[in-house]
């Protein structure tokens, strides 16, 4: 029991601090408002590291993946399946949350202004900047990710010189992760203080919206885990594939629930794939990559966060916002979710891309912390179904090539 709780130790501490801060803001609003500078200092520290974190992490991971370019079709299949399996749950929960509004008419009153959050999105400015300096701003995270992906591909295709740059990026990434680890010691105090000041001017009814949002996410998770998994397994192996999946998915699912880590569950996932009779050559290539790339649970909670916060702020969830929500969700699953130790990167990505007030960050963190375990189960279980699909797409070709 204790070992299981240790896997959630940091999440429990952070969630407890946020709940305490929220209660303090409701009970002692004047005192809580004075705590805002403490939270602002913590967020500013994160903002100062966010640009090098994104650039270095994405470039180094993409550069390493291009070393596998000799695998050709199978690598393309892994990426394509991962993207599609992020889009489907993201769109599904957007539609579900739009039909059953988790905010239920409760409005979040904030002092900060909103940039572009309620209007038409400028996709040119969102995806690009007109000079290099623009990439160094947290307001252009999406453009930074796009350029980092392109740079990572170029590094991977540059032979010996590229390998030297990739090694340097790996070293820089290690240092940046250590900086993040140091900053995270202050997360409970910093975010707790910021959440206290946010809740100081709110109605107590706001706390109930979290329960509705989490309940909606768990409902979506149950539906996606049963119906979605069955459909994917059928695509990968027909009726027999569905049977083999449900006979062997429980062990990795339970392990993911206990560890809250896709990576820690990887050995169990590989063993389950072998029990399912999947081709070992394909599963041993696919699963380590899918752990970082295929994160449907991350895409789902990211989409719900955006719909939820738009509803709380009383903003119009237009067609433009729908499209950018799906894009952000896919990137969160495909790239951001694979950044080790990238604490709060997803929340910061949402806020900066959509021009939302910083005050909503603790609210997004609360949702993420509560739903982390369920998201991890989705990620892990669908690594198995993704491998089934990848085997069906590449099995015969890959076996003939191996012979």
From TrEMBL:
One of its GO terms (molecular function) is symporter activity. Gene3D superfamilies: Sodium:dicarboxylate symporter. It is found in: Cell membrane. It is a multi-pass membrane protein. GO terms for cellular component: plasma membrane. One of its GO terms (biological process) is dicarboxylic acid transport. Its main location: membrane. The chain crosses the membrane at residues 12-29, 41-62, 74-100, 132-155, 175-196, 216-235, 296-315, 321-341, 348-370. Keywords: Cell membrane, Membrane, Transmembrane, Transmembrane helix, Transport. This is Dicarboxylate/amino acid:cation symporter. It comes from Shewanella holmiensis.
């Amino acid at each position: 029991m204790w070992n299981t709780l240790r896997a959630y130790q940091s999440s429990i501490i952070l969630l407890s601090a946020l709940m305490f801060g929220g209660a303090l803001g409701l009970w002692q609003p004047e005192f809580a408002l004075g705590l805002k500078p403490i939270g602002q200092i913590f967020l500013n520290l994160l903002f100062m590291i966010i640009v090098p974190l994104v650039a270095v992490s994405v470039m180094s991971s993409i550069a390493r993946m291009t070393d596998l370019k000799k695998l050709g079709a199978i690598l393309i299949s892994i990426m394509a399946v991962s993207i599609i399996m992020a889009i489907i749950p993201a769109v599904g929960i957007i539609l579900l949350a739009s039909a059953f509004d988790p905010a239920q008419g409760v409005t979040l009153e904030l002092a900060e202004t909103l940039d572009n959050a309620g209007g038409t999105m400028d996709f040119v400015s969102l995806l690009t900047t007109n000079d290099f300096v623009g990439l160094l701003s947290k307001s252009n995270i999406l453009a930074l990710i796009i350029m980092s992906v392109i740079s990572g591909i170029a590094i991977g295709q540059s032979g010996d010189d590229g390998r030297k740059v990739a090694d340097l990026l790996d070293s820089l990434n290690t240092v940046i992760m250590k900086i993040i680890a140091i900053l995270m010691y202050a997360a409970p105090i910093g975010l707790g203080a910021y959440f206290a000041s946010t809740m100081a001017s709110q109605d107590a009814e706001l706390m109930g919206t979290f329960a509705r949002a989490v309940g909606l996410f768990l409902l979506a998770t149950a539906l996606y885990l049963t119906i979605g998994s069955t459909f994917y397994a059928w695509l990968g192996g027909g009726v027999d594939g569905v049977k083999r999946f449900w006979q062997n998915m429980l062990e990795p699912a339970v392990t993911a629930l206990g560890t809250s880590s896709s990576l820690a569950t990887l050995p169990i996932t590989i063993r389950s794939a072998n029990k399912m009779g999947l081709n070992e050559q394909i599963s041993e290539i696919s699963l380590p990559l899918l752990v970082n790339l295929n994160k449907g649970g991350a895409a789902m909670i990211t989409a719900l966060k955006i719909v939820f916060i738009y509803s709380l702020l009383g903003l119009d969830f237009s067609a433009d916002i729908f499209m950018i929500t799906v894009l952000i969700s896919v990137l969160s699953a495909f790239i951001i979710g694979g950044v080790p130790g990238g604490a709060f990167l997803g929340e910061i990505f949402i806020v900066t891309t959509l021009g939302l007030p910083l005050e909503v960050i603790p609210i997004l963190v609360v949702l993420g912390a509560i739903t982390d375990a369920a998201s991890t189960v989705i990620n892990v279980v669908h690594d198995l179904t993704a491998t089934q699909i990848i085997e069906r797409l590449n099995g015969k070709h890959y076996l003939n090539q191996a012979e």
